[in-house]
Design brief:
The chain is rod-shaped and about 110 Å long. Among the domains are: about 45 residues, no CATH class; about 40 residues, no CATH class. Helix 1 packs across helix 2. With about 130 residues, it is an alpha+beta fold. The protein is built from two helices and five strands.
Amino acid sequence: MNPYSTKLLQLNLSGVGFWLTFLGILWLLGAVGLGWLVNSVLILLGLIFIAPVLAFFGFRWWLQRNLVQGECPICQFELTGLNRTQFQCPNCQESLKVESGQFVRLTPPGTIDVQAVEVTAQRLED
């Protein structure tokens, strides 16, 4: 076998042939009068590539609006939750609800929730 044969000049163009055929078919369809078909294929390809990017940024925007960080009103444990959800504090197991960006204790109807206020005692002398 001759080591200096034409195999040295051979290029691997296997992927290029597919794309040339695809572009040729698109050009032929456009020339025949089926431009609407070419446009619809291009629009579909555009949507396939743009939709995941829009979904990613849309999810980030939604998460920034609905993710709430704060402290448990009972034990002051740092929490993260979504707006309008209910869960239990992992530290004190108290049922909590996220309302308007704050963590609120979830109590059954009819329960009166009070906060104690510390008052200093003064002696009155007669």
